[in-house]
């Protein structure tokens, strides 16, 4: 697709009425100057030389707000995980500005809710096309901001494109149920957009996960205030420009930046917010449930943490299956530095093949997952220190490090350093892929979500023990089952306490399927019809024949 002015009537109105300000704003500067790794690096270097870090701006009512009124002076430092250097300052939006953004979403709601499905579908497809057009720009900034490799970032941008195109077509084909009761009354489901949403996302797959909420929100006729993680705000900042280019009416999507306690908490608690779609940690999920407990009608969709098991049965280690088994178990453990809620961080192998598995797995990981090439840096200094703490604990608990070790301590930059935007890899948050064996079953290393490039390998005796070890967790998000036995796939798979079970595969996604977790991994499901349940309210209509 070429970038051109839309001829869609709603688009024309919006674009014609709201020209983008001529003054060079931060978003214009990035948008026009920094579209590849080379230009982005030069851009950051210039900023560094002039000691002017990039300042992000909220996107409210269709405009990037030049200053954050009440939060002036309240900024959050954003660091490049690969170098540890400061590269941007993110506004910490204060409660009254949060409320102003919610008001903007509320004001936009009635008109947006009335748009036809065809119209909304066209907006979604246009947004999808625009992201695709700027695939590299999004990937470059996601990689700089989050620490992931550029290749991984590209995969996630492609998924963002798919999120919008999937829901663009879903709404064109959507059907609702109708039934006849004893021939007396015809009933049917009538659905309406649920209203204004808070869309809150984490730092591990920033664009992928935020667009997984934005797309259905728009598709089902809702408006929103979106708040990405304060650790990774860049791709959401870029998205504001896409929404402008797509001519999305003002206020339909507002993007605000800030931390959890100040900005996120004010957003979810606002009485004008009709629903919250949240992805993040379980503790934050609990805080959101508590904060909204009295607002009974508020829709809550909570996608939370995981500590997912990978079960390796000996038949999957037969020569004809072994390479696939190793590849899947390794990618489930180390993709995106293990910073995916679905990562299989606890591997359990049938005893007869345990030593064989450990040997092949370790060789494969050492060859395939190379720090700085196929493995990026972890997202933040705080997260680096958290993972390091668990590796220290593993050592204390007597675990064997087959790969990796306890990384060096990293200290926060001192105040003098904080304005430096230079590249210095030694301050980067690099943790090599780490495989642990001999971890005691009661160790917190096996219980807590570490969310980094760290995997444990333990053994099991039989199916029953495999299931019981897999289910021995407060979490229940995902599980991987590696076996060549067809009957076992269902026999074991259907006993696993996990919202998603992948057999001889991992993170294979079909966007219509319910996605979400059991136990402490979440409340509700998203995807296809499940997203419709999140973003719509249902009234059952009864039409009697008398
Ligand atoms: N189930 C899933 O689909 C899924 C996907 C990705 C990540 N996760 C989980 O996310 C976690 C890592 O992400 P994180 O550290 O950014 O999570 P987090 O819970 O700390 O933060 C997530 C988001 O919530 C905001 N937030 C924090 N406190 C808040 C509050 N009181 N009210 C409202 N918003 C608040 C943050 O600013 C951020 O935008 C891991 O536990 C991971 O498993 C789950
Ligand atoms: O890190 C969490 C990954 C979540 C993935 C999805 O929500 C998805 O694939 O739709």
Automatic annotation (TrEMBL):
Active site: 303
Stored Pfam families: Aldedh
Protein species of origin: Apodospora peruviana
Matches recorded under Gene3D superfamilies: Aldehyde Dehydrogenase, Chain A, domain 1, Aldehyde Dehydrogenase, Chain A, domain 2
Listed GO MF terms: oxidoreductase activity, acting on the aldehyde or oxo group of donors, NAD or NADP as acceptor
Sorted UniProt keywords: NAD, Oxidoreductase
Protein name: Aldehyde dehydrogenase domain-containing protein
PANTHER family the record matches: 2-AMINOMUCONIC SEMIALDEHYDE DEHYDROGENASE
The keyword Oxidoreductase is annotated on this UniProt entry: yes
Membership in a protein family: Belongs to the aldehyde dehydrogenase family.
Domain Aldehyde dehydrogenase: 70-540
Source domain of life: Eukaryota
